[in-house]
Amino acid sequence: MIGFYTWMFTAGLVLALGLVYWFGVAGWVVSAILLVGGWSAVAMNGTSDPAILAVQVLVAVFVMWFSLRWTLRHQSWQERSAKDQAESDEKQRVVQTAIQDIREKIAAKAAEVEKGLKQYELVKKLAEAVSLEEMTPSLERSLKYFFRAEGWALYLTNERGELQQVQRRGITPDPRAEDLPKQEPYLHTFVIQGDVDQGRCVWALGLPLWRLHERVGLLLIRLPEFSPDQQAAILAEANTFAVQLIFAMAKAKLYQELEGRSRTDGLTGLSRRGPFEERLKEEVARAQSFRSTFSILMIDIDHFKNLNDTYGHQVGDEVLRTVAQRIREGLYETDVIARYGGEEFVCLLPRSDPAGLRIKADQIRQRVGAQSYVIGLEAIQVTISIGIAHFPQDGATAQAVMAAADRALYAAKDAGRNCVVEAASVSS
User: Do the bridges between strand 294-301 and strand 201-211 make them parallel or antiparallel, or are there none, so unpaired?
Assistant: First the structure.
């Protein structure tokens, strides 16, 4: 029986150690209760040797004391270990946060550097370009990069300060009257018309281009969808972009004005002789390719030198401007009119009908002759002579058809002026 109780005691100690190991202080309390309960039962039964029971008690007390001490130390170690682990985790989190911040700063700096390089590339390309045509590819790439532009339109001011469209890509809004006085970038919405996105409301960004107090132009950009919190960033980017763009657009505008002046007669606003001859060569090539026709009107103001000598050059200039206007009124928009010489004009009329052209030329002659010019108390009138030549009947080359029209003009002057003569009626 004593051996049985010894085995039970040993099993109780092992169980107690297991409870202490797995459940800590709670396990130790349960173990102590079980051991005390077991000893009490044995003592009350009186079947155990008191000496063995005393030894078992001493062993149990020692084991329980040792296990309690180990449990408390182990718990303290666990708390300290947990604290150390928490501190380590916190330090690791701080380090990871710092690393992430550094990565974000590096990424932001890289993006800023890339944006700066793109801006430098834009400025460099625009500085190298002279005409608007040379600037357009770089401008379009930049708009897609900086604003993801889905369309854009560029307007430059003319000599009267009015905005005129010079470039357009995709569907964009027209300038709004209420936005014209603005000098800072602005956003507004517009509804798409005449596109696959018919009726869709989208955003537009306006970049007014001002140099000091002078308007240079306006750039309108169609934007993709963006969140409301991006508006400030878009406007800031637009302001920086506009600063880079103003100088280039001012240069493009100046170049356009100079080119226009070089191709346009300053007095009458008509094309000059050089651009007209280029257009004539193009029309000859087109007519030869498509087997079409065109006609030439050579027009001269009768007795213009006497008019200048009698009334002065100011009156002569007014006559030239008015005659040019009356000739333009009698032609279609597709027709080309140029000031060919001092008081001589030339018109190119693609795909004209010879019979109808003779009537049109006579109407122009009558319209010019009906115009009165008041000089002091005197009212004067001027007349014109017109020579007509047709391609290819009167000439198979640009030079030939022009020579035929010139012969017809001189024939009109020889016939007494203020009349219309066709080259076919003049012997070469």
Answer: unpaired
pLDDT tens-digit readout, 109-155: 777 777 667 666 766 766 676 677 778 888 888 888 888 888 999 99
Say what the pLDDT of residue 226 is: 86
**From CA 326, how far away is CA 297, in angstroms rounded?**
14
In the block, residue with structure tokens 């009015």: 162
Continuous segment of H or E residues that includes residue 389: strand 384-391
Per DSSP, the residues of 199-257 read T-EEEEEEEEEEETTEEEEEEEEEE----GGGHHHHHHHHHHHHHHHHHHHHHHHHHHH
Return the amino acid letter for 159.
Answer: E
Q: For the chain, which ranges sit under pLDDT 70?
A: 1-13, 15-28, 30-31, 34-57, 59-60, 62-63, 66-69, 72-82, 84, 115-116, 118-120, 122-123, 125-127, 129-130, 194-197, 255-262, 427-428
Is beta strand 151-157 parallel, antiparallel or unpaired with respect to 294-301? unpaired
Question: 267 near 323, Cβ under 8 Å?
Answer: no
3-state secondary structure (DSSP) of residue 324 = helix
| CA–CA gap between residue 310 and residue 316 (Å, rounded) | 10
CA 278, chain centre distance (Å): 34
Axis crossing angle, helix 132-147 with helix 231-263, rounded to the nearest 10: 170
Label residue 65 exposed, middle or buried (CB < 10 Å: 0-12, 13-18, 19+).
exposed
* Cβ 357 vs Cβ 388: under 8 Å: yes
Q: Quote the radius of gyration of the chain (alpha carbons, Å).
A: 50
Residues 6+ apart with CB under 8 A from 67: 16, 17, 20, 28, 31
Contacts of 256 (CB under 8 A, 6+ apart): 131, 132, 156, 166
Q: Which residues contact 263 (CB under 8 A, 6 or more apart)?
A: 271, 272, 274, 275
Would you list the DSSP string of 107-171?
HHHHHHHHHHHHHHHHHHHHHH--SHHHHHHHHHHHHHHHH--SEEEEEEE-TTS-EEEEEEESS
Which residue has tokens 């950009």?
221
| Count of C-beta atoms within a 10 Å radius of residue 369 | 15
Q: Residues near 21 by Cβ (< 8 Å), separated by ≥ 6?
A: 27
The H-assigned helical ranges of 291-423 are 304-311, 313-329, 354-369, 398-414
User: Helix 273-290 vs helix 398-414: angle between axes, to the nearest 10 degrees?
Assistant: 120
